[in-house]
Amino acid sequence: MPVGTFEAIALHAARVMEGARVELLRGRLGAKAVPYGDRGCVLQWLTRVCVRRRPELWLDTQQGLVIESRREGRARPDGILAPSDAFAGAGTWADPTPVLMIVEVTSYDSDTDHRDRVEKPRAYAETGIPVYLLVDRDTCEIKVHSQPDGVRYEQVRTLPFGKEVTLPDPVGITLDTEPLKDWTR
Prior knowledge:
The chain has helices at about 5-15, 35-55, 110-125; strands at about 20-25, 30, 55-60, 65, 75, 80-85, 95, 100-105, 130-135, 140-150, 155-160, 165, 175. By secondary structure, it is of the alpha+beta class. It has a single domain (about 35-185), classed as tt1808, chain A. The mean pLDDT is about 90.
């Protein structure tokens, strides 16, 4: 699907359906659930931790990003860690240059496996986003992807919920993941 067509669909969907979150990955239209309930609690917790440790940053849960190697993709990550004013004046789909970390929290839908575990790590690595944090509520694990090489993340560290994990530079925040146990099935 051409980017212009997608952007028109996304704009219409946002007007017609409250909270609609559509994305364009590898030329395919996709939709994702709004992070409410337990997924929303994960993002609230992570926002508090990040702002407490790095007050100059913000975990944005609304901004869309231009992604992929040729910048033809459009993503609506669950969270984008960036300087607090990084997206001032940006509009719906922002340049990913100031992004330090992307956060995705798995939902319990049929597409989450392919989207969050395969397509998005590749797209974010192609974009050059330094860290991709996947909070995998299906496996009760946190996956920290880092060192993008333009195709994939060279490092992937997987830890069970409850362990402490230090997010690599440029994030440099240590998370005690024990609270994540409260927001899984």
